[in-house]
Amino acid sequence: MIYILCLAFFCVGIYCILRKRNVIKIIVGIIIAEYAVNLFFILIAYRMEGRSPIHSSDNQILNMVDTLPQALVLTSIVIGLATTALLVAIAMRIYEKYGTFDITEIRELRG
Length: 111
Fold this sequence. Notes:
This protein is mainly alpha-helical. It contains 3 helices and no strands. 4% of the residues are buried.
């Protein structure tokens, strides 16, 4: 059930990217889709009553959590932050040059 909600969250992000005409809303759609993918990876790595794989000589860990998806999500968050900062900077330059965030009003982007 929760995977379907994650998919719906991703679809909302894709809808914002494809259907919105405002640059800021497109950036928000990218962020939503990115967080949906991160949430999906975290859900895959989740285990009921799982423990972190920290080595200890006195106790035995039987149900370890896989740390690879967590490391990937942490890296994705950092890259996503840089990407978002770049997109916002580009949006600010577009607004300075054209005076609007609406991509349909920007004539030089038309093919």
